[in-house]
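Researcher: Here's a chain I'd like modeled. Treat it as a single chain, no partners, no ligands.
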Amino acid sequence: MRNCLAFVVASLGLVGCSPGADVPAAEHAIVEFHSDLNAANFQKIYSAGDAELKSATTDAMFSKILNAVHSKLGLFKTGKSAGWNDNVTTGGHFVTISYQAAYQKGSAVESFIYRIDGNRAALVGYHINSDALLLN
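Model: Modeled as a single isolated chain. Structure tokens:
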């Protein structure tokens, strides 16, 4: 009986965590990110970001990084999720998505970290790996 009760309690704990809703919120935010990147709206991306992003870098530095991506890789063309992780910690609720991206001048593997608050996904971190960034 104790094992059954423990299983029920553990199952109820999982009900509050819904990757089915969290991952699409982050994926929608990635679509907005690439749209703003193509339009060179770097400050908009930074302004909409999480406080953790803003404590890690300045608007000016983040804009320089995004400008380098934009100028060296060109316009974002297409991409797809290559995997995700939905994680709830004492520090918050985070979704990390690995993304295979095709840009005008080359390909890239991007990693997006979003803090999920309800239906809102706020950018916490952005990382990009691309040979074209170095060669262009």
